[in-house]
Amino acid sequence: GALKAEQILRRVLQEREDNSSTKKRKKRREDIYPSFVMYTMTIDGWARSIGSHDSDEEGSKEESDTAAAKRAEQILKGMQEAYESGDETVKPNVITFNAVINAWAKCRHEESPQQALRVLTWMNDLRKSNRNDAQPNESSYNTILGAYSRSGSADAPEKIAKILSYMDRMSTEGMQIDLKPSTISYNSYLSALVNGAARGTISGDVSAQKAEKLLNKMIKRYENGDDVEPDGWTFTFVIQAWAKSGTKNAASKAEKVLRLMEAYHRRNVLVWSDKSNVTLYINQFNTKPISIAYNSVIDAYAKSNTSGSARCAEDILRRMESVQMSGENNDVKPDLVSYNSCIHAYAKSRERGVATKAERLLRHMEDVYKDGDTSVRPDVRTYNGVLDCWAKSGEKEAAYQAEKILNEIYENYDAGVSDVLPTTVTFNTVMYAHVRSGHPQSGQRAEDILNQMDELYRDGMEEVKPDVISFTNVINAWSKSRNEMAGQRALAILNRMEELHDAGYSKNIRPNSFTINAVINALSKSREVGKARMAFDTLQRAKQKKISGVNTNIKIYNSVLNACAYSDKRRGDDPNDVLNIASKLMEEIQEQKMASDITYSTYLRVLSIFMSPDEKRQRMLEQTFRQCCDDGLLSQGVLDQLRWSVDSNLYKSLMKEGSSSGDRRGEIAVNWSRNVKYERQYK
C-alpha cells in the first residue's frame, strides 16, 4: 500500500531528475512529472496504514504509527517545496493537509494531538505568508479535537475548550464562517471529559457537571434558533460522564439524562409532522437514543452501592426490551453488554432471590442466541457473573447450583454448543460458593476443585491456572466447614502453596496476608491440641518470609489470640504456653499501637481461663481493662467479657474509674469507647 505508492513516487521523481540532467533524455521524456494524485495517494496510504499494524507489542505499534505519520508529513513538505519551485500542478490543498493532520491524530502517543496541531499551524503560516492559499476548515479542527479527546490527558478538555472558543469567534465575527463548531466538535469536548474521568486524570464529579452544563446550553441555543443540535452521542457522553463520575447518585443522574434524551427525541418526532421538511426529517433520527446510552446507565447501577440498584438496572433492561419489541427505534436493543451489566448489578445486590433472577437472564440469553441472535451469546463473563450471584447469595443450595453451572459449561463446550471455557475466575467463584456454604464437606469439595484446576493446567489449559485466591478459598472453605481436620488441611494447603511457589510453578500463588489469616482462622476453630502454638508458628513463619502486610495486620494477631482463647486445658493444651503466646502477641500489638476492641476482649478471655484464680490474675485483668479504656476501645464485647471474668465487686469498682468529678456513666463510656466502631460501642 503506502510503501509501494511511495516507491512509485520516488521512481518518478528520480526519472525526472535524470531526465533534466540529460538533454537527450529530456527530449524523449518531457512527460515525466509526479502528479498531484501520486502525492496525495502516497500521503493517504501512509495515513491509512496507521493503526493497522499486526504487532502485539504496544511500543512497536506506536513506533510504526509515528514513522508513518512522519513519512506522510515529509511527502507533504516535498509537495509544498515542488509547488514553491514552480510546479503549480502539485499544489497541496486543505484535503492534503487534513490527511497529514489525521495521520498524526491517529497515532498512539500523548504528543499526537500537538503534532496534528503543529501541521494545522503550519498550514495557517503558509497562508499568511502567501505561500499557499489552503485554509484549515472545520474538519481540520475536528480531527485535532478528536485527538485531544482520545488522549485522556488532564488538560484535554481545557485545550479543546480553547479551540472551540477560537472556532466560535472566527465564525461569529465573520472571519471564517465555516469554522462554526458543530455537534461533532462539542461531542469531542464531552468525550474528553468522559475519557479523563475514566482514566482518573480529571475529577469525575466536575466532568459530569461540565458535561451536563454543555448539554443544557446546546439544547437552549438550538431552541433559540441555533442550527447546532445535540445528537444521540451528545446525550450518551453526558450519561457516561455521570456513570463514570463515582459520585453517590451517579446512576440516578445518568438515568435522568437518559429520560431527557427519550423525551427530547419524542418531542422531535412530534415536531416532525411535515415530511417535506428534510432537516427535521433527518434530525429526528440524529437524536434517537442508542443502546450504549442504556448500557451506560445499567453499568452505573451495577457499580452503585445504593439500595435498589439491581432493580433499577433491571428496569432499564426491560425498557430496552420494550423499545425493541415496539419497533419504534431499531438503534435500541439489549446486547451482551446489557445483560452482563445487569447480572453484575445482581451480584452486587444484597437482595434475596437475585441469583435466581441472574440465572433466568442467562437462560433467556441462551434461548435468544439459539434463535439466531448472536449479539446476546453468553460469554465467560456472563457465566462468571451468574456464579458470583450464587456464591454471594448465601442460599442453602448455592454451592450445588454453582457446580451445576460449571459442569454445564464443560458439557456445552464438549457438545459443540458453546465455545466458552471456564477460567481461573470461574473456578475461584465456585470455590467461594463452598466457602459461603459452611457445609461440613465444603472444604473437601473446594480442594477437589483446586485439584481439578491443577490437573487441567498441567494438561495445557493456561486459562485455569490456580492463583493465590484459589488456594486461599480452599483454606477458607476448610476453616468454615467445622470439620475436625480443618486445621491440618489448612496447613497442608499452605505448605503446598509454598512448595509450588518455590519450585517456580507460579508467582501468583505466593501466600499473602489473607492466606495466613485464613490458615490461622482454620486452626483457631479446630479442636487441635496445641493449636495456639501452631497458629503462632504460622504467624512467625509468615513474618520470616516477609509476607506483605502480616506485621501490621491486627486481624491476623487477633486470630492467633482467638486460637489461644479457645484452646482447651482438658484436651491437653498447656496453659503456660498459651499464656506466653498471648503475652508475646500483646507486647507486639502494644508496640505497634494497633490494638482493637476485639484484641482486648479476646485477651481478657485468655487471662480469665488460663491464669490461676488469684490476685495476680485480678491485677492482670484490671491492668488490661484500664489499658483498653485509655486506648478508647471499650466495646460491648469487652464489657461483656469483663463482667464474665471478674467478680461483681471488682466490676463495679472498675466501672467507676475514669472520672474524678463524678461524671455520669454514659459520659465516661463515650470517652472509653471513642475509638470503637459505632455498632460495637459501649451502650
Automatic annotation (TrEMBL):
InterPro entries in alphabetical order: PPR/CCM1_RNA-binding, PPR_rpt, TPR-like_helical_dom_sf
Region (Disordered), start-end ranges: 49-69
Keywords: Repeat
Identification of the protein by name: Pentacotripeptide-repeat region of PRORP domain-containing protein
Upper lineage: Eukaryota, Sar, Stramenopiles, Ochrophyta, Bacillariophyta
